[in-house]
Amino acid sequence: MDSDGGTVATRTYLFAGGGTGGHLFPGIAVAERLLQQDPQVRILFVGSDRPIERRILAGTSFEHCVLPSPSLAEARRHPLRFVRQLLTARRQAGELIECENPAAVIGCGGFASGAPVYAAWRAGIPFVLLEQNVIPGRATRWLSRLGGTVCLSFETASRHLPRSARAIATGNPVRHEIADLAQRPPAEGGVHSDDLKTLLVLGGSQGASAVNEMLIGFAKQSAEALAGWRVVHQAGAADAVRVRQAYAETGVAAEVTCFFEDLAPHYRCASLVVSRAGATTLAELACAGVPAILVPYPHAMDNHQWHNAREFEQAGAAVIVEQDNASEGETVTAGSGTFDETLTSLLQDDQSRAAMSAAMSGLARPDAADAVVEWLMVDG
């Protein structure tokens, strides 16, 4: 209640963007911290209608509003349709900003963040941009010219922003259950009741066919190297059944699913990870202190996953195995032996995994969400 006995207006924070777990989870982490500071604030996520976005946000208490979200691929294939959708998105975003009058807008990244952040700028609403990658995305590079603060996961990302951009290296926000892992010792020897070490395989929130093929190939050719290990594999909806069957045929102990709703318990038990190099996954691995073999997605914009992975490899926390130059949709085998040799070596080398785990923990920024909220309070 205010001094006159009326109800204090609820402050609304609008989170713009999404489409993938890598963009959504940092926004969710910041939203959680805002609610911890003030349980009365209202959180509204504005983004796309992609199933993965709906699924992730359905697991939270946050409202979700969908705006048209044309992709740049759509611009190339259907330019007139793209322009119409873009104009509709801008109009609807402007109407939403006028209606909600948020205290601030947080851009989570991706093309879907553009219209709401632009509308906020036009309305004089403060905004903060979350940039997860070493090479900032196009949306961040363009929107950073409008003002606001860009919160960087990697300090080196500032080299790729306009000189006029105001940037601060906060780290990549992670959800509280992930951040809490940084307070616990690394889980080398973190095993289940059957005393098997855990190899965790992650292809991003939607899985990765190439990574799936590499693990299937390894299980078929080198199943003996996985003796004493369990594989916990996030394979994506398209491949989960096939991957599960392949492990069963080779006799490898494996748990395969489309998508893990809660990765924290799996991080806690993992002794080694094979993963894509999305920045949010890397931030989570750092908090968990889990050594990694990283397979960057070769078709990512500006090859940003390779640059993300390189930061971790140079720190001694990970090893990069580059995917073959396959075109979109093609599978990749592990026949060259590079991946097989790297995985076999790390499965057998406890000392190397321990050293990589310590290096990985040294990269952790469990307080990143708090740092973003602090800057959000300054801007907002």
Concise structural overview:
The protein is 42% helix and 16% strand.
Query: How many H/I helices?
Result: 15
Biggest sheet overview: 7 strands, parallel
Return the CATH topology of the largest domain: Rossmann fold
Number of domains: 2
The average pLDDT value, as a whole number, equals 88
CATH architecture identity of the largest domain: 3-Layer(aba) Sandwich
- In order across it, which strands form the biggest sheet? 3-2-1-4-5-6-7
- How do the SSEs run, as a string of H and E? EHEHEHHEHEHEEHEHEHEHEHEHEHHH
- Cα(first) to Cα(last) distance is 22 Å
Low-confidence blocks of residues: 325-337
Structural class: alpha/beta
Count of extended strands: 13
Query: What is the C-alpha radius of gyration, as a whole number of Å?
Result: 21 Å
Q: Tell the overall outline.
A: globular
**What's the CATH class of the largest domain, please?**
Alpha Beta
How much β-strand is present in the residues?
A: 15-25%
Estimate percent helicity.
40-55%
- CATH homologous superfamily designation of the largest domain: Glycogen Phosphorylase B
